[in-house]
Design a protein that fits this description.
The protein is built from eleven helices and no strands.
């Protein structure tokens, strides 16, 4: 048995990494197909602002991240429906505002806050059992939502106007998907950090898109890459004595780089 499995905290980290790798890589497929990569980055920075607010107000930073992320995500979705504004512009304004507000709130915190630094870059090795349960429940709920709404979300991703013609409630499905994405981002920052959760959502799906030949293949390959990046990154960080969160993302980025130059026929399932 490998040495790292002797440590309970590392076994918990592996389970948490596998769970977050599965849900982020699956949600990431729709994020990439809908060209919402910048949106996920905006939500991750909004989560950091929510954490800072939680620390300032003396409440659990995790719930501060969840509340503020949902508020920003649903606000962007609501404003973005207007025909007189561009969604890219709305996301850019939300991104900048969340960043500025976060800096202001962090400036009000007294002393050096090591817990805030941990939320910036993640602390997957310090995940507690109650947090592991929360991540597991979110992963199950997220996969259930993906399975339930898969056909509708796929149609919206490829052609939203056609989905409306087929009487799919696009606005409602957008709110469900965006809320789920915000929750995953808010909880995922505990593991890999606010700076790195966005890339972990985007990179496995982007790599899968390069080598898959259909939508089913994209989901399966993205999931495999997400698991390989999280679990492989954790093991590599143990042996190389590196920061776990960044190592996970660097592993995913390396796989993406290989997918760009992989001279293979598109994989179909």
């Amino acid at each position: 048995m490998p040495e790292f499995l002797n440590y309970e905290f590392f076994r918990q980290a592996l389970v948490a990494g596998a769970l977050i790798g599965i849900i982020t890589s699956n949600l990431g497929v729709f994020v990439v197909l809908r060209k919402m990569s910048f949106f996920s980055e905006a939500i991750s920075h909004a989560s950091l602002t929510g954490i800072a607010m939680g620390l300032l107000l003396g409440v659990d930073p995790l719930w501060g991240a969840v509340a503020f992320s949902l508020f920003v995500a649903l606000s962007v979705a609501s404003i973005g429906k207007r025909r007189d504004v561009s969604m890219d512009t709305v996301i850019g304004v939300a991104f900048s505002t969340a960043m500025a507000l976060g800096v202001v709130v962090i400036g009000q915190l007294k002393g050096y806050r090591v817990d805030l630094f941990g939320y910036l870059f993640g602390d997957i090795l310090g995940v507690a059992k109650n947090e592991l349960v929360l991540i597991a429940l979110l992963t199950i709920a997220g996969l259930a939502a993906l399975f339930t709404f898969f056909r509708s979300w796929a149609k919206i991703a490829f052609h939203a106007d056609l989905a409306r013609v087929e009487e799919i409630n696009v606005d409602l499905h957008d709110k469900i998907f965006i809320s789920l994405l915000a929750l995953v981002v808010a909880l995922g920052i505990k593991l890999v950090g606010a700076i790195l959760i966005g890339p972990l959502i985007i990179i496995p799906a982007a790599a899968a898109k390069n080598i898959s030949g259909n939508l089913r293949g994209m989901f399966l390959i993205s999931t495999a890459i997400g698991l390989l990046a999280t679990l492989g990154g954790l093991v590599a960080s143990y042996y190389a004595n590196l920061a776990s969160g960044p190592t996970v993302v660097l592993g995913a980025a390396a796989i993406y780089g290989l997918s760009l130059f992989a001279k293979i026929k598109p994989i179909r399932f």
